[in-house]
# Entry
Amino acid sequence: MEIPARTVSCGTARGRVVVSAQPLNLLVALKASLAWWHRLGMIGDADHDLFGVRTTGRILVLPTLYGSTMGAPMLLELVRKRLAPRALILQDAGSLAAAVGALAHAWLERPFPVVDRPQDDLWARLKTGDLVVVSAQPDGAVITIP
Amino acid sequence: MHLTPEEQHILNGGEGRCLQKAARALVDYGRAMGADCLVPVRSVHLVISGGTVVLPGLFRILHDLAAEGHQVRVPTTLNARPFEPGAACLSDRIAFARQAELEKLLAVLGCQPLYSCTPYLNGNCPSQGQLVAWAESSAVCYANSVLGARTNPTPGLIDLCCALLGKTPRFGLLLEQNRLAGCLIEVRAKPPLDFSLLGYVVGRLAAGRIPLLVGLEATPDDLKNLGAAAEIAGGAGLLHVAGLTPEAAALGDQVLAADYERLTVTDHDLAAARDSLRGTGDQRPTQVVFGCPHLSLGEVEAIAPRFGGRPVKVPTWVLCCEQVRQALKDTEAERLLAASSAQVRSLCPVFYHDAPHLLAPRMMTPSVKLARHSAYPLYRPLDECVATALGES
# Structure
């Protein structure tokens, strides 16, 4: 099935999802994930239900990202090192996700697809491990569940 | 998005490849956030101030900018740094091995070497209605709420792009219609209040909406601590206090959006939050930290007599910006803190939990913000922190 969404940052990605209904404090989540090799790309916020989950190469499905403005350079570094999720699907992208999408395009010349406002309750439909395809184009995005 | 001929010229690469990238990022970011144009700002506050070894990509960008000879176009201050020159311990020197390189690059780009999370106490204080582009959530909340200036919470590196262009995309909190309160929170707790704890509860209750707080008596310093904790709990970058903050005072009930929700905070809510923040595991701190965000002169002068010149038993930091530290020179407060061996420093303890510190200190603090960033959350009310520092608990 195909679910329309809004494009925040262009690109396409195919992968297995990691789903949570809990907003993610980006800096708290990533503070250890760049520092220690055994935690690379891992969610490090003990107060989050994805604590300890590795998101590298996955498509992360969350309500939103929040917290310190330093979260943006941290996630950008994960994108640069190819340790980041392949794409973000959010209910409301917010400034941090929008920033990482824009910065990845401009400075790394690498797409980091971010979409938000899916026209369906993905949190009821998807569970961690499901396969999805995200296609985010300038005129709109489509999330495909094969 | 509407762009001026000058902005279009930069976007086409007319002023170099790096400035083109900065403009590209700013325009794409603005478009994603629903901005209609770029607007000039009075100042920028950058969050990039720690030369951590885990962000080589950041250094590549800064080196490229410096090599092309770009400079910031508006006054730009810097967030607090992980340590002061010449005062780094071994694990600092490992985790922040690129600190000197970072500070040199930022100076080359024309940033002012004012390192603090309270730029408004440190030479960068916008007035009511002025547009700025600040990062650092606690400073953003203070600028919007207490000063009545207008800024969105600007993500790291987007803040640098704003400084390089002297502009920011117009959306969100820059627009009057987006500054109305989505909820009214009645504070029914008995003073004296722990404003950091109250902020945490308010931030969680408001859940991303702008709150109007009623029934609250608070100083600007109280609102600084309240806002910092509200932001860490998911705040909106702005809060109004009835009769107190500029927009609430000017607009009265008109500061409320049409469909606002009514909520309350009681002593019971504060006690429940305090218990949830106490943390588990080893409760003995290796460090007691006051000043996240950095303390004002008044706050340092209020804390100093609590130590009464008695020696501390646990290493203690009292953190403030450089201007406050200069103002402290030769005061009674400085004498008392020195007699207690409490160190007045101008650094950011949050870094100790962001970097690969082998010996990250267990910090006891009355700041919910710092505790929330900590690997060993040891939030305690102020009295308990002072007693622990003095070995009296």
Observations:
- Residues 17-32 of chain B form the longest helix (16 residues).
- The two ends of chain B are 59 Å apart (CA to CA).
